[in-house]
Structures are given as structure tokens and as C-alpha cells.
Amino acid sequence: MSLFYPRSEEEVSNIVKSCDKHKVPIVPYGGATSIEGHTLSPHGGVCIDMSLMKNVKALHVEDMDVVVESGIGWMELNEYLEPHGLFFPLDPGPGATIGGMCATRCSGSLAVRYGTMRDNVISLKVVLPSGDVVKTASRARKSAAGYDLTRLVIGSEGTLGVITEVTLRLQKIPQHSVVAMCNFPTIKDAADVSIATMLSGIQVSRLELMDEVQVRAVNVANDKNLPELPTLMFEFIGTEAYVREQTLIVQKIISEHRGSDFVFAEDPEAKKELWKIRKEALWACFAMEPEYEAMISDVCVPLSRLAELISCSKKELDASPLVCTVIAHAGDGNFHTVILFDPNQEDQKREAERLNNFMVHTALSMEGTCTGEHGVGTGKMKYLEKELGIEALKTMKRIKNALDPNNIMNPGKLIPPHVCF
Ligand SMILES: Cc1cc2nc3c(=O)[nH]c(=O)nc-3n(C[C@H](O)[C@H](O)[C@H](O)COP(=O)(O)OP(=O)(O)OC[C@H]3O[C@@H](n4cnc5c(N)ncnc54)[C@H](O)[C@@H]3O)c2cc1C
Questions:
Q1: Which of 52, 68, 72, 106 to mutate to test the pocket of ligand 1 (most atoms within 8 A of CB)?
Q2: Model confidence over 239-254: pLDDT tens digits?
Q3: CA angle 196, 205, 324 (to 5 degrees)
Q4: Which segments constitute the FAD-binding PCMH-type domain (predicted)?
Q5: Residue nearest to ligand 1 atom 17, measured at CA
Q6: Residue 410 CA, closest ligand 1 atom number
Q7: Whose CA is nearest to atom 20 of ligand 1?
Q8: Cα–Cα distance between 183 and 202 in angstroms, integer?
Q9: Are the CB atoms for 410 and 27 separated by under 8 Å?
Q10: Which ligand 1 atom is nearest residue 156's CA?
Q11: Could you give phi then psi for residue 412, rounded to 5 degrees?
Q12: Nearest CA to ligand 1 atom 19
């Protein structure tokens, strides 16, 4: 496999043109934080690493948008934006790049308030498999001008082209915020509170759930002493008075659902520390089994089905000999399990796959999806036909063939190999 580090769109275009001419596969590469084998190269070829293209090209404070090269990380971008009182509200894995985030249609803990990458990108510049460069939209906030090419590329996982430039919507850093935590006797109580909070009409900016095993992992990894019970974490934002009002309403909902130990933080450092724990929850799991690997499920269902899905998954997980944790972006109906297994033990691998399968099929039976945010890569291809139907997959394949007739862009990913038209 050859590695390229382009410094400009023109260099990307030249590399792609030459690969197309010689039918050489290309894997675009951002922060490599994706989880479903997106950046594997089963057919060899060329890797285009975007890490040298991370300039901010223009910031429009009054329009609340920014134009960046696609290799910039979301954390670097937020450091740049902070002095201007603005931020970009999507927070996937630390180290993820804006290009990779577009390509996976990612979200994160703030999606419950601000939407996913689909809702926060205004336009893109993309090098197509032919080497031609396309700009997908103007800088206007909304447009009804033709096919939505921006959203075609968002979520295409490097299979339709290389994203070189992105125009993003920005948000004002909230005037005031409070982070709250509380515990529940069962995970169903916690899930029920998530649903009741969303139905109350309160616009929480984060609503995250961890089960007792995940809290144990956090304690082990961070030398903490949090109560090892199903736990919800909330963030409320707005004016001081509005935040106080939201906190009181949610506190009442919690007390009606057997919640306890309600604590909240207003100090900026304490809040940062709490969210850091949540953001690093996946890595914390390895503190319990350092030699093991993790299989991570990422299912999402309509919100009203969340409590049922989590309860029935949890029964299955607790009965398994493997260590499994639950983490959920509960306000979106999106939940992950981290299943730890010894990669040298075939029976453990099979058990991890069985649990993952169980959760995906249960979510699909509830009108859900096999991936709320991590994307398809190679890992989720096998579920797409059941979720979307063969006609949808054939349509994807037609689009792929029209744009990439030599199948050079990230081949072997996203569209299952048996699909033809
Ligand atoms: C600890 C941890 C927590 C996470 N939390 C979340 C979460 O809360 N929400 C969430 O959605 N995800 C989460 N993720 C998953 C991951 O961070 C996201 O999928 C992220 O969007 C991947 O971005 P990346 O830059 O790392 O992309 P990569 O892993 O480098 O690539 C991902 C895909 O995008 C393609 N790609 C990359 N750059 C480009 C480009 N410029 N043009 C075209 N295609 C490109 C690649 O070919 C590949 O198919 C988490 C991961 C970790 C490790």
C-alpha cells in the first residue's frame, strides 16, 4: 500500500486521476477513529492521508459559518473558534477530522440538540473518481437548487470521492450551562427518564446513559468512586434562569422514576472533567480487560422503543460470560454496547458476534437501524439489505457505478458485494 500526503486540492485531483487511469484502489484517510473497518484496504492500492490539509480558509462570524480544509480535527477547529465565541457542535471520537466526520455522517453527544453531520454541513468540495472537482452547494443557509449533492456525499464513506473542503454551520457558545448526573435502580428507569425528558419539550443539549458496568470501567480507569448504578448525564444550556428552570423540571421527572443522588456542576473545570469521562468511556473499558479487543454495537431506534430495546439487550448481555457495557446517546434513541473478548479465543469471538447480531436484529425489528452514527464500513454491510431492502441497495450501486465506473474509491465497503443491477 502506498501513502500520499497531499497539500492541496490540485494534488488530490492529480493522485485520483492517475489512480483512475491505472485502476488503483484509493482509501481516503482522516483521523482513523472510525470503528467498522472503514479504512482497511482489502484490495491494496493507495491511501490518501488528509492530515496536511487542515487550514481554516475563511471564518464568517456574522454568518456563523466557517470554510475549512477537510483534514482539520473537530477539536482543533473548536480551539480556533473559541475566541470568537463560536463552536462546532459535533463531537465523535477525539482525533476525528471534519472530512472523516462528513464521510461517516457522524454525530455524538450534542446531536440531540444540534442534529448530526447531515444537518451541520452547508457545502462541500469533492474530488470525484475522475479527478474532477465538484462544489456541491453555495454558502446560503438553505437552497432548493436541484439534487442535494452535499447529502449524497455525507455518509458515503470515501466511496464516491475525496472531500477536500467543507463549509460548516457554527453555533454560539452558550451563555450558561449546567451538567447534572443521577442514578437509578434499573436501566429501564434511566431509559424511561430519557424518554420523559424529551417528551417534556426541554431542549437538553446532552442526554447520555451509562449502565453500572460502564460506570465500573470509568471508576477503574480514572480512579473514581462513582456509584456503580445505571447513570444519566444531562447538559442544560441557555440563560442562567432558563437553565435553572430546566434543571428543576428534570429533577422532578427523575424523582418520579426512582432516581437518586442528583448532583450538578456549574464550575467550567468540573463540567469539562465530567464530559471527558464520558467521551473516553470506550477506552475506559480496556482498563477492565487490557489484553482484550472490543466489539462495539451502535444501534438506534425510534425513541419510544429505547427502554424496551435496552432492557431486552441488557438481559442478554448480563447472561453472557463476556464483560459488556452499555453507553447511550439516550435522547436520540442511539445506544452502544462495548463487548470485550479475548481475540485468541474463538468461542469468545463467536459470542461477541452473537450478541452484536442479537442487538442489531432486535433494533431492526423495532423499525431501527444497524448503525445510528458509526457507519457501515465492512462490519455492518451484512445488515443493510434487511434494513433498507434490495431496491435501495441497487439504487446505491447505480449511483456508485455512475460516479466511479472503475470502482477505485474505497472498494469493498458500504455496498454489500452481492448487490448488482
Ligand atoms: C473513543 C471514540 C468515541 C467515538 N464516539 C463517536 C460518537 O460519539 N459519535 C460518532 O458518530 N462516532 C464516534 N466515534 C467514531 C468516529 O470518531 C467517527 O466515525 C468519525 O466521524 C470518524 O472520523 P475520522 O476522521 O477518524 O475518519 P476515518 O476513520 O479516517 O475515516 C472514516 C471513513 O471516512 C473516509 N474518509 C476520511 N476522510 C475522508 C475525506 N476527506 N474524504 C472522503 N472520505 C474520507 C474513510 O475512507 C473512511 O471510510 C468514536 C470513535 C472513538 C474511537
A1: 106
A2: 999 999 999 999 999 9
A3: 70
A4: 1-173
A5: 93
A6: 47
A7: 101
A8: 20
A9: yes
A10: 44
A11: 85, 10
A12: 34
**CA 390 to ligand 1 center in whole angstroms:** 26
- With residue 361 as reference, give the H or E element that holds it: helix 346-365
**Closest C-alpha residue for ligand 1 atom 15:** 34
Q: What is the mean pLDDT of the chain?
A: 95
Q: Report whether 22 contacts 2 (CB < 8 A).
A: no
Domains and CATH numbers, the chain: 2-172 (3.30.465.10), 176-281 (3.30.70.2190), 284-365 (3.30.70.60)
Q: How far is the CA of 188 from the centre of ligand 1 (A)?
A: 30
**What's the Cα-to-Cα distance from 167 to each of 76, 121, 135, 256, 384, rounded to whole Å?**
16, 6, 11, 44, 30
What is the structure's pLDDT at 278? 86
Confidence of residue 203 (pLDDT cuts 50, 70, 90): confident
User: Which residue is listed with cell 432548493?
Assistant: 144
Separation of 183 CA from ligand 1 center, angstroms?
31
Which of the 8 DSSP states describes residue 43?
T
Residue 232, strand partner residues: 182, 209
Question: Ligand 1 — pocket residues by CB below 6 A?
Answer: 27-35, 38-39, 50, 70, 92-93, 96-97, 99-101, 103-104, 106-108, 157-158, 162-163, 282, 373-375, 410
Any alpha helices (H) in 8-146, and if so which ranges? 9-22, 74-81, 98-104, 111-114, 117-120
Q: Could you give the angle at the alpha carbon of 113 between the alpha carbons of 311 and 356, nearest 5°?
A: 30
- Distance (Å) from CA 161 to ligand 1 centroid: 16
Backbone angles phi, psi at 380, to 5 degrees: -105, 0
Residue 379 has pLDDT above 90, yes or no: yes
Residue labelled with grid coordinates 454489500 = 416
Q: How far apart are CA 27 and CA 71, in angstroms?
A: 14
